[in-house]
Amino acid sequence: MPHKILLDPYARTIELLFKPEDYSRLQSAADLVWAQNEAAPDEVIESVREDLFGIVTGRWSYGDVGRFPNLKVIAEMSGGFPPPDKLDYAACFARGIRVLSCAPAFGPTVAEMGIGLALAVARRIVWYDASLKRGEWRLPDLATHEPEKHLEHSLYGLQAGFIGLGSLARCLKPLLEPFGCPIQAYDPWMTDAYLELQGVTPVDLETLVSTSKLIFVLATPSGSNREQMGRALLEKISSDAIFLLLSRSHVVDFDALTDLLLEGRFRAGIDVYPEEPLPLDHPIRNAPNVVFSTHRAGAIQEAFHNLGRMVTNDIVAVVNGLLPREMQVADPAYIDLRGTR
Fold first, then answer.
1. Model's pTM, two decimal places?
2. Which helix (H) or strand (E) holds 320?
């Protein structure tokens, strides 16, 4: 008899997440419960809770995991592990319940956006586009001593710095390789030996910020890194560097970042914000030399289909007694390090 899997992906839709062939494989592998685009009602969950083998969800909102005596797998589809104040990880680990995150599904498209923002800023693509649409035809004046005329340059050979070397950074690294950029990285959750094995140079955060010309913020938000990049660190960024905020604004003192960008202290590409949508009156909207995106780095159809494929593959594996191989598996040490954000 097929295992019962609660499929409750709200607020995303089944059509957005699954290609027809992947959804068909999921249906063949398990007895799907609910599988609709609205949130599963409490009465539906209550009627099947004792029989559920797995829960595939957009967010954990089901209370005590002890309600589900036969649960073996939780697969989240929002982009990060459920917060520890919502899900009892100790109980999950004690019972052997695998908790899976779909975060790796977004790595390739976010990395792609990182390169796009870096190129847009370095080669001033957005500004030339706007200039042409105003009827102008701007020519480079390499002889001038006006600083604003020297803002355009190549990415080739620039010192890159990765703040965080998780799955997102591992997707970005091969995209930078054709540009010949040496990469240094700061990740306090990894040993120097491991960072070196990944082909990057381990450095402390101050060194990375003060010496890198491409600074990619890729860190997972945690209880210990909120506003880790405060004003004092941000002031160490050189005027010819590009600051690329891709993972979460949680890691940055956004008010200080706004002040420094309004002063024109360095350039930036930004995809994530402390409040979304960004308020219309937020002063950062007026910052010069910044290219903005509206938290669109990962949220494209290819990424969502990648997510659905990963979920399908790992659920098929688990219901057949095999190990999940594509989603990120929660580890006690990782959950402890992440803490409550």
1. 0.93
2. none
Q: What are the boundaries of each domain within the chain?
A: 4-101+301-338, 106-292
Q: Which of these, 162, 289, 291, lies nearest to 215 by C-alpha position? A: 162
**Is 106-292 assigned to CATH 3.40.190.10?**
no
Q: How far apart are CA 41 and CA 73, in angstroms?
A: 20
Specify the DSSP class assigned to residue 229: B
The amino acid at residue 11 is: A
Sheet holding 328-329, edge to edge: 31-34, 4-8, 52-57, 73-76, 98-101, 328-329
Tokens of 233: 């660190």
Provide the 3-class DSSP secondary structure of residue 75: strand
Give residue 60's Cα distance to chain centre: 19
Instruction: Report the CATH number of the 4-101+301-338 domain.
Output: 3.40.50.720
Nearest Cα to Cα of residue 313 among 69, 43, 73, 46:
73
Q: Order the strands of the 242-245 sheet from edge to edge.
A: 201-202, 183-186, 160-163, 214-217, 242-245, 267-270, 290-292
Tens-digit pLDDT profile for residues 104-160:
999 999 999 999 999 999 999 999 999 999 999 877 655 555 544 457 999 999 999
Distance from first CA to last CA of the chain, Å, rounded? 40
Which residues have a Cβ under 8 Å from the Cβ of 1 and sit 6 or more positions away? Answer: 31
Residues 259-275 as b or e (16 or more Cβ within 10 Å = b): bbbeeebbbbbbbbbee
